[in-house]
Structures are given as C-alpha cells and as structure tokens.
User: Which sequence fits this backbone?
C-alpha cells in the first residue's frame, strides 16, 4: 500500500507547507542527520519515516510506498547505492529518489545508481530541501503557486549526536571485522562533519587515511575512541 491509502482526503499543499500530503522515507543510520530531516519535514508539511539500514528499508518498502525516499550512501549493511538502484527499476516507482552524503564523490555515485537528485550533508536549508523534492516530482504532482520562503537554519537535537556517539562506541568496542571498522570510520567522519565537530572529523579522517595507506592504525583508533568517549561524557559541546 501507499502511505496515502485510506478514506481521508490528502491535505493540499500550502504556501508555507508545500509538501503536505507527502511521506518521506529517510534511510539514514545517523540519528543526528535524521533529526535534521525530521525538522525539515515538519517545517515543510511532510510526514517522515526512518529506516537505519538497507534491511529495515526493504522491509518498510514491502508494505508502504512513500512519496520520497532519501538514501544515505553509507549504511551499516551495505551501500545506499544498492537500494537506489533497486528503487529506480521497481514498478510502480517511488516518485522521488534522492541520495545524500557528506562525501564529495557521492553525488556521482547516487546519480549513476538512478537517483533523481542529491542532497549534500549537512542538510540545513529548508528551501534547498523543498526545492530538490518538488523539482523532481512529476509535473502533475508539483504544488502550484508561490512558496513562502522561511529559511531559518535547522538545529538538530544535540542528544541525537550523543546517540550517534553511543552507536559508534558500541561498534568500536566490539573489536569487529575490518568492514565494520571502515563503516564506523566513515560514519563518524560524516556525522562529525554535519555537526561541525572538526576535531572528531579530523581524527576520523586520519584513521581513514592510515587504513587506505596500509599504515598501523592502533594509535588512530585509540584517539578516535577517546574522542567518542569525551562526547558521551558531555565533556565536549557541539
């Protein structure tokens, strides 16, 4: 079924809430990034659902068909490009498929997989969010009339950032396989970049470069893990 199934007529878009009647599925493992998406949807009139991995997203899509799917490229159980490719070839097709990431190369990957557009992180602009969705809707579904632009910056809940740190600490504490270490390094780099946490971002970037160069990484891992614990202990504000 679609998220619009039911007996109640869908609300019509307004100048201040141009996405009324639409549902956004955010496929996003970061609670901080997802809270930003929640605020963007709230200001735009859209409903939001969240899946934190590919498996969860596929389960959701077996039951519901949202208007918009926004897929993070780096997920714990694989690349978001896989899901974008599946969605792009599925019938009936989701109206709008967007990729998102903080990595500079990710837009090309998302578009090559079949995405209609791309939202670079951090996603802080309501106007950019609305425009990217509306411009990729079929013409007959695009809201008519002028939109009222109120582009106050989005400020996600700092507690969501701590949730991301707790998730990273769990992965780092498991002493997992190499793939999970690559995942948590990419995860921390992206979340820290979105939150403006430049110290943690630089440490995660250093770990990524050491792994790519084949250099010893023990000291880098210890540094990253210590910074994560500092944020969990509230010794650092973002």
Assistant:
């Amino acid at each position: 079924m679609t998220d619009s199934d039911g007996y109640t007529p869908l609300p019509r878009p307004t100048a201040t809430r141009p996405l009324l009647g639409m549902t956004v599925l955010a496929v996003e493992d970061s609670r901080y990034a997802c809270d930003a998406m929640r605020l963007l949807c709230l200001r735009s009139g859209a409903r939001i659902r969240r899946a934190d991995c590919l498996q969860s997203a596929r389960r959701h899509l077996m039951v519901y068909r949202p208007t918009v799917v926004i897929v993070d490229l780096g997920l714990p159980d694989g690349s978001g490009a896989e899901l974008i490719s599946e969605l792009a070839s599925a019938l009936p097709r989701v109206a709008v498929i967007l990729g998102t990431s903080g990595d500079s190369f990710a837009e090309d990957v998302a578009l090559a997989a079949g995405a209609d557009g791309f939202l670079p992180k951090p996603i802080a602009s309501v106007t950019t969010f609305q425009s990217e969705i509306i411009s990729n809707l079929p013409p007959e579904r695009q809201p008519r009339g002028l939109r009222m632009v109120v582009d106050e910056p989005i400020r996600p809940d700092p507690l969501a950032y701590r949730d991301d740190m707790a998730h990273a600490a769990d992965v780092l504490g498991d002493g997992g396989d190499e793939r999970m270490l690559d995942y948590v390094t990419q995860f921390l780099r992206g979340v820290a970049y979105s939150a403006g946490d430049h110290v943690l971002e630089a440490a995660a970037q250093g770990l990524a470069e050491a792994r790519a160069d084949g250099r010893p990484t023990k000291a880098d891992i210890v540094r990253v893990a210590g910074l994560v614990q500092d944020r969990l202990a509230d010794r650092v504000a973002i």
